[in-house]
Specification:
The protein is of the alpha/beta class and 268 residues long. It has 14 helices and 6 strands. The longest helix is centred in the N-terminal third of the chain and has 19 residues, at 79-97.
Amino acid sequence: MDTVLVRGLLVIEHFFPMPARVGKPLPIGHVRARNADPVILVGGYANSASGWDEWKRSLEADGFQVFIFQPPTTGLGDMEDSAKAVAAFILEVRRKTGRKVDVVGFSEGGVLARMAVARLGALGSVDKLVSLATPHGGIALNGLYDALAGIGALKRAIPAATAQLLDGSELLLRIARDDAALRRGLDPRAPRYASVFSRTLDPIIAPWSSMLGGAVNVPVAADQSWRTGPNHFEMFHTSNRAYEATRSLLLDESDTTIRRAALGVVDE
């Protein structure tokens, strides 16, 4: 099952033409980008490292130093193990660069980053923690999961992270308790939390599931005027507005500037 999921997503990624970059380029030699924290990109459920290709190219072209982390078992295994690996990677990048890092976690990757900071040793090493299309409140597919888990052969094939990402899961409730004080800014070592998510409802995630208490919550509009927001796949690969809003967060721009980027508001 794990191999089928990962290869299936790779087929989808290669089937659809991907842009050379996302977002409008920053001016060449942009000082704030050159001086920004190193950026770690953390993949999500069944995502390969190549899924970040468009973002990596774009961030590097904009002057950022970028590192990609792919969770063990491509995020399909126990999320506790994956989060420990994320924490170790954060500490290693900080050791190499001598600087605090910013983390952008897509989907499950946003939850893994929260876990790494809250209780796995990365607290104090992360300046900004940006989740991208992350189901902080869980994915509402409990009925489908129960039906599949009721079939013996399928139950054994369902990845461990599937149940952990469902709404109401013990893991999601625990991490909400673990980092509540950090998100409220009650610890000086806490990162700045932000959640960037689509304004539209799709089969994977709902906007209200991505909202995170104590974070800067940034709903993203679709690049096309006739749509409400990008879908889960587009948030990861092709959404200019998701990228530009995230980039504004990494550049420490104002909340107003960040939200205007997410909505595609152009200054006159």
